[in-house]
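User: I'm curious whether this sequence folds into something compact or stays loose and floppy. Could you predict its structure so I can see for myself?
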Amino acid sequence: MPKSKANTGKEPIGLNRDVLPEDDVSALSYEQAFERLESIVDRMSSAAVPLDELMLLYEQGMALGAHCEKLLDSYDARLERVSRQALVKELDALDEQYDESAEEDGF
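Assistant: Here's the prediction. I'll summarize afterward.
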């Protein structure tokens, strides 16, 4: 028989249980993680949040924030790599043009 999802009094009402620190947030896209992080910030900003729930929300937010930062660092590294590759291609093309021009000029 499935467990009842009724609040036992130990779990804060309204807590976002789908993203806890022990859950694997690494499967979330940046957009999904950021949206959940915004939701947590909104919830934490409300006046009537019990301290226990605030702590759980804080833990969730930290896990999501770390995940977002890791994704952004990864995207930054990819952009840097692609930019470097484009620059190398451009320099190679300029080098070829210079070599062809030097050959034509007899150098």
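Summary: The two ends are 87 Å apart (CA to CA). The chain is about 65% helix and 0% strand.
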